[in-house]
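Problem statement: downstream parser choked on a complex file, so we are re-checking the raw output for the nicotinamide-adenine-dinucleotide run. The parser issue turned out to be on our end (a line-ending mismatch), but while we're here, posting the original submission so the record is complete.
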Amino acid sequence: MTEHLNHFIGGASFEASDGRRINLVNPVTEQVYGSSAQGTTEDVDRAVAAAHRQLEGGAWSQLDGAQRGQLLSKLADLVERDTELLADMDANAIGRSPIEPRRMDLPNAIANLRAAAGWANQLEGRTIPTGGYFGTKTLSYTVREPVGVVGAIVPWNSPLMITVWKLAALLAAGCTVVIKPSEETPQSALHLAVLAQEAGFPDGVINVVTGYGNEVGRALCEHPLVAKISFTGSPEAGREIQRTAGVLFKRVALELGGKSPQIVFDDASFEDALRGCALGLFANQGQVCAAGSRILVHRSIADRFGAALADAAEAVNVGDPRQPGVQMGPVAKKAQFDRVNRYIQLGIDQGASLLAGGVSTPERGWFVRPTIFTNANNAMAIAQDEIFGPVGTLITFDSEEEAIALANDSSYGLAATVWTTDLVRAHRVAAAVKAGAVGINCWSPLDANLPWGGVKTSGIGREGGFAGAVAYTEEKVITVLLPS
Ligand code: NAD
């Protein structure tokens, strides 16, 4: 089937203003299976104008929180109805097994929409006692207003779920949006916009402009009518966005990369830790921001744990994820394949030893063997850089203090996992680790009510939970003079 995807602006489908298109390539076969519109500055202008009209007296601006909540509930129902279709769209675009998005991304997205339906009616202001105004009493209160038009810039690894994290919260807050999906994965965002139209959202509230980051993404960041940029992606792009948006005083939320530690103590349940580390390394071919790619293991169990993890890696059946029995597909794109192999070679060159996997040279398709390094130290590139592939680096420690120091010796701080049966130690280590989220005996739990985001190079701001919706509002204070 050849897909011909266009922008979705103001409720209608549009080609790029200059007619250019981007090929969509299947990572299993390396064949072109369709194309999407290559958005231009003009396309962004049109989409932002549609979004802005809805805020300035449009039908959307007339709805109250309860009405916005009803629309979000309807959208949740429609996403649930189309779960298989949406999971297939995301899976096919990046060569992932559809089982993962069906079990993880879609339920999480639906839960986010349902939670946001409730938040929409709870964005309350405050009344604030004051000293009055030059001797006259006053009443001061605040209201929460939508921040405005949001530019939502999304990566390719979990396209629908990450789009919904932004969409659910910003719609609850009463904002409108121009979504820029990744150039590799525009399908599910476009379908989501169509579902929103079916749910009854006024045309122009949700717009999708497909295309490249340095064209569409940049135009959104520079657009004077875009009030906030909500970005998920690489630190390199995040840095550029922060720079551009900073000059224009735009609000910015940045969800960036990670190099998350999994700390395995000698008193951990061996089997649970092994399963959790394998999941954290190999889910979505390791293309997960919270991937637990640094395995810090107590020296007394390191050999046994490394051997078991290597067995788990070798046991992963890599191939076309649509075939029965296949657990891991290819990485999403050629650039990612080259990057992962480059890092594997770098690990070897810098003196780490392979326990499983290695550089991959498949005949066709961007398949990478699950790879585990040992005899590594935390200064190596494979321990410091986000590889974004199924590659784990095992590093040993002798004491809790050393484990914490290793965990924190990273420019990233997105997530961490602590594996131990000692509850006091678990909380002590969780408190000491510098990360936005710590799992104790579980890798990267996600929930619509939990905040998500990182410290250091992993980003600025949090998505998720009620505070995630509040982040799409501005607090305005109103003071009225009350002469007696
Ligand atoms: P990327 O930064 O290359 O692209 C992300 C999005 O930004 C794409 O839509 C891209 O077109 C756009 N973009 C790129 N350059 C831009 C620019 N200069 N201005 C505006 N937009 C631009 O990242 P990617 O390769 O798509 O995704 C992988 C990265 O995303 C990894 O670093 C991963 O850790 C991170 N990520 C983070 C989270 C999180 O929640 N913290 C979740 C998923 C992925």
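For whoever reads this later: The two ends are 75 Å apart (CA to CA).
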